[in-house]
Amino acid sequence: MAYVAFVIDVFSRMIVGWNVAGTLRAEVLPLQALNMAAWGARGSLDDLVHHADHGSNYLSVVYTDRINELGATPSTGSVGDSYDNALAEAVNGLYKTELIRRKGPWRTVEQVELATLEYVWWWNNARLHGELDYRTPVEVEEAYYAGLESAQPALAGQGSR
What we know:
Blueprint: E1 3-8, E2 15-21, H1 30-40, E3 49-51, H2 56-59, H3 61-69, E4 73-75, H4 82-103, H5 109-125, H6 137-151
Helix pairs in contact: 1-3
């Protein structure tokens, strides 16, 4: 059995952290995905609201302590609140449809892990998303950061001539 955890940036729909493991244990599966996302973050996570479902591995002390260490605010929503989990369920459903069912059968966790690495790259860099005006998550991120840079005033001596 292979289990997969994704950390998704709601703004760009980019998969920013992921992990494949043979166990659901908090310190193995979701914590490694969270650590990958934190490592790749471009700045402070103080304004981040981290949503996860009510699974015991996401409510564990080791996982919630790490969210607090990062400065993020944990949020598990309310029981039965379908809006909180809709994006995650959509990504998981697409992953299963576009990769797991289409390319299987899988014999090892390592096979799923390598295929997931390729899938995440494709998802972020090549797959067009209707919710993003048929752009990729990378294009959305690049446009956002380009807008931030162009909004910065030129420093003395750095303006165009």
